[in-house]
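User: Let's play a game. I give you a shape written as tokens, and you guess the letters that built it. Ready? Here's round one.
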């Protein structure tokens, strides 16, 4: 007899909303329905208070300072690092590096693997880099530049016509010169959740270093990092109820040690003479310059907030909202939903035949509904699917089924007006 598992705790978004003061405002005389969470989520009071507490009681530069505020700041920074390592399920072989966000982290990896430094560059002429066709530009353009700089070949793992990456599609691309495989854990433009566990393991088995863009997944349920064949993982604070301008590159120490730093100076050096410098140990060598200490503190507070709600419960809530929106949009004449099968997602994107998404987004805004329109930093994927720019709604733990119904009615009204 199969073991019965308890259902995940249900989220009450109405009860949570007072913790997000930014949602209490109105747009054009209408209550705000904020459905642009794949771009930026709102911050709860717990994060705002953590930021305020740091600025009031510990604002100082970290490391080397012997005064009390510097010691407080250093302790807060390193405690945030340890908290986030636990949050992502890192193991003893992992190290976490703070940076400006996912884009910054992925540029650090691409630059670091293609540029010689203390070690010979990992990428050399004739090597191959594989990037999936689902990627945000931040996990594509840096690899284009790295390939151009070092003479490697960039290969694309394209999804099928429904926007899905199949587990068996990677094997034919892997070869003896495959050195890097870069993949998203959740497609920014469509919400597709690729089988990243299987794909990362295949690439690692072929000897490639693996890179995971977890920006759209890390706030929800995803496997512990220590269970994945993943050398580098990147994510941003502003997509998980944390501050803007802070993000994380976390990976296996042996892989991070291969990276030539992107920024030089400050704490990333151990000893400097007039003509040369030796690099500090990880993670300092990849954190050159004054870091966003307050941002790190706020990001750790955001992770604690998410865990207090429960990632499994958040996931179930978001999937239900996405299913409601995808089903309702598909019933509107002339509307095509991208990746309708992407049930494990908080993102729904669609096109309305003959209408530009900017016009739809503008009319939704007039009704107090905030969505995102355009290519969503994934133009090659949009071109591949042949649908052009889209309108995208994306959900967070504070969104309600009533807001989804407002979206559906707003889209129907916008289409009627525009036609």
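Assistant: Ready! My guess for every position:
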């Amino acid at each position: 007899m199969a073991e019965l598992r308890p259902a995940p705790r249900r989220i009450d978004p109405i009860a949570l909303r007072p913790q997000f003061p930014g949602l209490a405002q109105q747009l054009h005389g209408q209550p705000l329905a904020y459905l642009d969470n794949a771009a930026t989520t709102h911050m709860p009071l717990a994060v705002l208070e953590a930021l305020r507490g740091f600025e009031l009681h510990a604002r100082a530069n970290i490391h080397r300072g012997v005064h009390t505020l510097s010691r407080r700041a250093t302790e807060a920074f390193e405690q945030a690092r340890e908290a986030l390592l636990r949050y992502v399920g890192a193991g003893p072989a992992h190290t976490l590096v703070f940076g400006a966000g996912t884009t910054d982290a992925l540029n650090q990896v691409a630059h670091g693997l293609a540029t010689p430094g203390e070690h010979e560059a990992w990428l050399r002429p004739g090597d191959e880099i594989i990037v999936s066709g689902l990627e945000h530009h931040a996990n594509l353009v840096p690899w284009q530049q790295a390939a151009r700089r070092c003479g490697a070949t960039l290969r694309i793992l394209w999804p099928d016509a429904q926007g899905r990456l199949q587990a068996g599609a990677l094997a034919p691309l892997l070869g003896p010169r495959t050195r890097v495989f870069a993949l998203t854990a959740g497609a920014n433009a469509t919400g597709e959740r690729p089988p990243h566990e299987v794909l990362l393991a295949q690439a690692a088995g072929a000897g490639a270093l693996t890179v995971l863009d977890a920006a759209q997944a890390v706030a929800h349920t995803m496997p512990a990092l220590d269970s994945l064949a993943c050398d580098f993982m990147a994510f941003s604070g502003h997509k998980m109820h944390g501050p803007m301008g802070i993000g994380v590159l976390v990976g296996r120490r042996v892989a991070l040690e291969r990276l030539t730093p992107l920024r030089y100076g400050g704490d990333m050096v151990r000893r400097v003479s007039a003509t040369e410098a030796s690099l500090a140990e990880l993670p300092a060598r990849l954190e050159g310059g004054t870091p966003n200490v307050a941002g790190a503190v706020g990001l750790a507070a955001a992770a604690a907030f998410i865990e207090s709600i429960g990632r499994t419960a958040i996931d179930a809530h978001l999937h239900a909202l996405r299913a409601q929106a995808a089903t309702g949009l598909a019933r509107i004449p002339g509307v095509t939903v991208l990746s309708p099968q992407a049930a494990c997602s908080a993102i729904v994107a669609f096109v309305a035949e003959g209408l530009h998404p900017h016009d739809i987004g503008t009319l939704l805004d007039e009704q107090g509904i905030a969505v995102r329109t355009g290519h969503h930093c994934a133009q090659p994927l949009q071109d591949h699917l042949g649908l052009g720019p889209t309108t995208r709604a994306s959900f967070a733990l504070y969104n309600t089924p009533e807001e989804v119904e407002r979206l559906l009615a707003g889209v129907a009204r916008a289409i009627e007006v525009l036609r």
